[in-house]
Design brief:
alpha+beta; Immunoglobulin-like; 5 domains; 5-stranded antiparallel beta sheet; 5-stranded mixed beta sheet; 39 strands; 33% strand
Length: 755
């Protein structure tokens, strides 16, 4: 066999084997339609053809009012029994949601409502229940759907839908709307960023830009427009009134015009408005921007009945002053830094304003960019309550503002609230880890300091440990050691209640604690983030520079990145428990299908289809195997398929699903270690009757030989054609070696082939 023959053979084998902002005014985005249902015997109307998918899509904005507009309830159909009444359309999302209302509330609890709904044409949807409404999300605009409600759909009082009903849901085009992002926009000095404008089914956007003068800025807090002010405030609800206020003695319109935008049917499109380049005589300060559909102007007064458009408004601040505030026992500290360079800004005048728009204090930032205010200034209430910080730089002709009572971003659920100012005695408690199993020992450390940070000694401290329900578990009383610290071991019984436990330190057991810590007691909780810190230095000394190597592993990274996962382990090792834990990282917007012998998975996502196998009856008929369920699951257009346990020939279909558009699928398998798990998967694929001929064996041997002879993987960064050229064209000697090895190779001994 020469190299040309070998190349032709490899090509033939490859070809033969087939390896290859806020809405302002009237939202108008919900339609409520009473619709008489049809029984299943009624011939449904022919559905409208599905419009072609748009070329581009973007994330949809979040309007302030997304709930369907309520209307008067029509009389219940089908007598006094549990019955469908009407449907409403929520068009505020990228995909529409239809809510079918019934005359009575629907059942709560573990009810799989998706089993009672059939759609024609089929669509990948999510079903949820809100009181008396059954809502179906994920519908396409411009499409008519026949929604079949199956008999037996349960109501809350035990009643069920007696007869199968068909409801035709007609979805028109998405309402035209123009929005702006968030509550406010900081435009850093020197940046070329434009103002993002989001439009839906709009071809031309009208824009008005108003500038607030210095007097308007001073008045702003005392007027009723304070609560709709700068970034961090509440949504703006009366744009025309605010525009009139600005056009008075408080500001003026700087620019008004239109901007052409790309119109993609029913999809949100984001267009950057070059505000600096467009507005003449642009200078630092506060601006108010209003946008609307140019074809539908908004009303400018309560008496304006001719215009019914919806506008969106937002404050824009052009500044180089970045403000940060910190509140503590020493009062209020404000730091001013340049948004361009991040360097401290000295000489900036900082004024603390009250709710009554009175200055409570004034200071000039020092060289480090800090301005300080005493703690007493923060204790005012009512009109004297501090609500905002005004910063002005006369030399640079710059201005900025920071709200004290409202955050620009809601981070309350992110654990960034900070620590409360301690009293005369402050205790810091910590455990060696945050999660324990029942029967383990908690190592609790306590350090007690005064308000200046000095260690307190020879002071009795009572430690009280409480269960998750708040009942006392145990308490200890010790005298502090010389360093103001003490150690206490807490033995948890094997019958410990699962949940969040707490340990608190008391100087007076009848008074409030001076320090507290929480820890969890769970059967099994995997680490979310594993961090290893290593250093070559054995001892860390003050003033000495030390280098550290940090390795961080994120357990949920594979799940979030949609990497398919197979969890292996022995019986009772926690495979299913780990799978349940990892599944919490899956997005709630995904459609999941689980396949199990017995339902053990506890997925919390709203759209989960659960499938279980069925053994044969006494006649040996009626069996449903996992392989059949996997094949049927792929026809249901899931985002992920989760297989409780791979045991047999279904492994081949599962691996195919993981490599054919269902990335992020998950499964478990019994094995002693990961290497044996791979071997078991190979055996299970063979159990499926997959016929792998000699051609595939020859191809595999050729690739192995290539790697053995060259030390590189042929497909690492090369196309198949490039590999063939290398096999038979560029290096004749290499081709001859592979040909000779193929003739002499013992396929049963790969090590010998490589030698």
């Amino acid at each position: 066999m020469n190299r040309s023959t070998l190349a032709a053979l490899v090509v033939a084998l490859m070809l033969g084997s087939g390896i290859a902002g806020y809405l302002i005014g009237r939202p108008g985005d919900s339609v409520d339609r009473p619709t008489p249902p049809r029984t299943a015997a009624t011939t449904p109307a022919a559905p409208a053809p599905t419009p072609p998918a748009p070329a581009t899509t973007s994330a949809a904005p979040t309007p302030a009012n997304t709930a369907p507009t309520p209307i008067a309830q029509p009389p219940a159909l089908a007598g006094d029994g549990f019955a469908y009444r009407r449907y409403s359309i929520d068009s505020s999302r990228a995909e529409a949601e239809a809510c079918l209302a019934f005359n009575k509330p629907l059942a709560t609890g573990d009810v799989k409502y998706g089993d009672y709904v059939r759609l024609s044409p089929e669509a990948r949807t999510a079903v949820r229940v809100v009181d008396d409404r059954l809502c179906i999300a994920g519908l396409s605009y411009g499409q008519d759907y026949d929604v079949k409600l199956l008999a037996g759909l349960p109501g809350r009082d035990g009643e069920k839908l007696k007869d199968e009903q068909v409801v035709t849901v007609a979805l028109g085009a998405r309402p035209a709307v123009v929005t702006l992002p968030g509550k406010g926009f900081i435009l850093p000095r020197g940046s070329a960023a434009g103002l993002p404008v989001t439009s839906i089914n709009v071809s031309k956007v009208a824009i008005s830009v108003y500038r607030v003068n210095e007097r308007g800025i001073d008045r702003f807090s005392s007027d009723r427009y304070y609560d709709v002010g700068f970034p961090g405030s509440e949504p703006i609800t009366e744009p025309w009134s605010l525009m009139n206020w600005l056009n008075g003695s408080n500001g003026a319109e700087q620019w008004s015009g239109t901007m052409e935008v790309r119109n993609v049917a029913n999809q949100a499109v984001v267009t950057a408005f070059p505000i600096r380049e467009t507005v003449k005589d642009w200078k630092p300060g506060a601006y108010f921007v209003v946008v609307w559909d140019a074809a539908k102007p908004p009303a400018r007064s309560y008496d304006d009945e001719n215009n019914d458009g919806v506008a969106a408004g937002m404050w824009v601040i052009d500044t180089d002053i970045g403000l940060t505030s910190f509140t503590g026992g020493d009062g209020l500290n404000v730091f001013a830094r340049s948004l361009q360079t991040a360097q401290p800004m000295a000489g900036v005048e900082v004024v603390v304003l009250s709710r009554g728009n009175e200055p409570l204090g004034k200071a000039i930032t020092a060289a480090d960019g800090r301005a300080s205010f005493p703690a007493g200034l923060l204790k005012g209430r009512g009109a004297a309550e501090p609500v905002a910080i005004m910063a002005q730089d006369a030399a640079r002709k710059d201005f900025s503002r920071l709200e004290l009572t409202k955050a620009a971003f809601d981070l309350s659920d992110r654990g960034v609230d900070g620590r409360a100012q301690p009293g005369p005695v402050d205790a810091f408690l910590y455990t060696e880890r945050g999660v324990y199993r029942p029967g383990e020992t908690v190592q609790l450390m306590t350090m007690v300091r005064d308000d200046s940070g000095n260690a307190l000694a020879n002071m009795p401290v009572t430690l009280i440990v409480k269960r998750p329900d708040g009942s006392e578990f145990t308490r200890f009383t010790h005298a502090l050691q010389g360093s103001g610290a003490l150690h206490q071991a807490i033995d948890l019984p094997k019958s410990s209640r699962r949940g969040r436990w707490s340990a608190a330190a008391h100087i007076d057991p009848k008074a409030a604690p001076v320090g507290r810590v929480e820890f969890s007691v769970e059967d099994f909780v995997p680490e979310k983030l594993k961090v290893e810190v290593t250093s070559q230095a054995e001892i860390l000394r003050t003033g000495q520079l030390n280098a550290f190597d940090v390795q961080a592993d994120f357990l949920y990274g594979a799940v979030r990145s949609r990497v398919s996962t197979v969890i292996s382990g022995g019986t009772g090792s926690g495979k299913t428990t780990l799978l349940n834990a990892l599944s919490s990282a899956i997005s709630e917007g995904e459609r999941l299908i689980t396949i199990e012998d017995a339902a053990e998975l506890q997925l919390q996502q709203p759209h989960v289809v659960r499938m279980e196998t069925r053994p044969p009856n006494i006649e040996g008929k009626g069996e449903i195997r996992q392989r059949e369920l996997v094949k049927n699951a792929l026809r249901m257009r899931p985002d992920r398929v989760i297989l409780g346990e791979v045991r047999s020939e279904e492994a081949f279909d599962m691996l195919q699903a993981m490599n054919t558009g269902h990335e992020g699928s998950m499964a478990t398998i019994h094995s002693n270690n990961p290497r044996e798990a791979i071997s078991r998967l190979e055996q299970m694929v063979a159990m499926g009757g997959l016929n792998i001929g000699p051609e595939a064996d020859l191809w595999s041997v050729g690739i192995v030989l290539f790697e053995c002879l060259t030390g590189t993987t042929p497909f690492a960064a090369e196309a198949t054609t490039d590999v063939l050229v290398r096999l038979a064209g560029d290096d004749p000697q290499l081709g001859n070696k592979i040909a000779a090895a193929l003739l002499e190779a013992d396929a049963s001994n790969p090590a010998a082939v490589c030698r």
